[in-house]
Amino acid sequence: MEIILKEDVIGLGYKNDIVNVKPGYGRNFLIPTGKGVIASESAKKVLAEELKQKAVKLAKIKAEAEALAEKLNAVSLTISAKVSNSGVIYGSVNSLQIADELQKLGFNIDRKTIVVKDVKAVGEYVATVKLHKEVAAQVPFTVIAENAPAVKEEAPAVAVEEVPAVEEAPAQTEE
Q1: The pLDDT of residue 159
Q2: pLDDT value at residue 153
Q3: How far does the chain reach from its first CA to its final CA, in angstroms?
Q4: SS3 for 130?
Q5: pLDDT tens for residues 95-116?
């Protein structure tokens, strides 16, 4: 069954795309929710005319997406996560954490447009942000241990404090 999408549907297509879907999905979900219409000959002609009229607007939207992609390509994120002794993250880093970090930097990106592979260990990774059907940005990010710097700073201080305490304890028992 051919459907003309009236809005972007994650995992299926973008607005004004003609997609083939199973009949039940089209009749029971896409058409009743207003996300698509049946792609009849007259609907295809109307779509073609609308696309001709909106070509300038689409070029402007694509240019804005490309400009945002250039800005995002220059960004590098650092995400801290709770980590076990072996360097494995408790849980994982996903698109929600990346969207939050981008929000802190002033980018309003929907988390559903961010694609990231399994991130379950400390290291460097790359997330893909789909801004337009033809424009995607690569955002590098580094996952670090949440408490790693604090442990490194405290470890020498604890070792220094323990050495005098050990020396004083035998001196007190000998007296």
Answers
A1: 41
A2: 39
A3: 94
A4: strand
A5: 899 999 999 988 888 888 999 9
pTM of the model: 0.55
- Own/partner pairs for 119-125, CB < 8 Å, 24+ apart? 119/89, 119/92, 119/93, 119/94, 119/143, 120/88, 120/89, 120/92, 121/87, 121/88, 121/89, 122/81, 122/83, 122/87, 122/89, 125/93
Instruction: Decide: 90 and 84 in contact? Cβ < 8 Å.
Output: yes
Res. 17: pLDDT tops 70: yes
Please give the pLDDT value at position 160.
42
Which of the listed CATH numbers 3.40.5.10, 3.40.50.300, 2.40.30.170, 3.90.180.10 matches domain 2-53?
A: 3.40.5.10
> CA-CA distance, 7 to 37, in Å (whole number)?
11
Question: Is the CA virtual torsion 78, 79, 81, 84 positive or negative?
Answer: negative
Taking the CA atoms of 25, 26, 28 and 30 in sequence, report the sign of the dihedral they define: positive
